[in-house]
Fold:
Amino acid sequence: MIQARSAILLGKYTGYGHPMSNRALSSSSTGPSPKYFLSDVKKRIGRCVSFGLPVTGALEAARISRHIGEDWKSLVLAVDGYDIRNGLEEKVRWGEMDAMGHVNNVAYLRFAEMSRIHWFRTLSKNVPRQHKGEWGQLLGPQGTFGLILAEVSIKYKMPLRFPCIFSLHHRLASPPALDETEDDGKLAKAFRFDCTMLSHSIQRPAATFRETLFLYDYRAQSTTALPQWIRKFFQEQWLQQEEQAAVATGRRAEIETDVRGLEMGSWDREGAVEDFGQTL
Structure:
């Protein structure tokens, strides 16, 4: 999977009428930072427009803008392996704000829990038929085994306020062990998920979560090792994450190259002068 991602990153892309060159790669515009990719790209396109673009360049700028508008979740989260197709979308309710005028910190835990349950239920469609019943019982005490949350940590990135639409997306934090024991010889009982809460208005993460879960044996009243079929299922999910991340990374690289092409045909061309409009 690493080789596949590297192949996409090293692929040759061409922008608006300009082949990739050393000048483009060594430009002061070295590309958007991962955290602010969307906002940086929008600013760069806006600067090209302010300096003036030919008709073909204007059409290309519109195409790029439409692309990032339609695929922004993938460009923000899928590059890191998050499942954007099975996310949970919610709205901030007035009563969820506190005296400080933003969503109370405690509410974030409830949102992450709702997303985790939603994600597990949507993943059930990929579970082998012979294990679907067992998978469905993992979310409650109806069966012999169940999933329990052992630990959760939160990093608050920005406040959410009413009215606001946001979504939560999960991923596996690391590839699951295929053997019953970890490297230190202990039973492979725990597995970890990452969750990101994404603000739709700002198009940036509002919070990130790390969740540690265990498989619990209700008869023995203790944690237990993950069955082989669960470890194999999570391994398949991990490989899908890597593939989706490679595709999204390639899309980012294409956009970066296309925007660089716009710049070379606008403010970064010889004799470029910013267009401040005309006065009457």
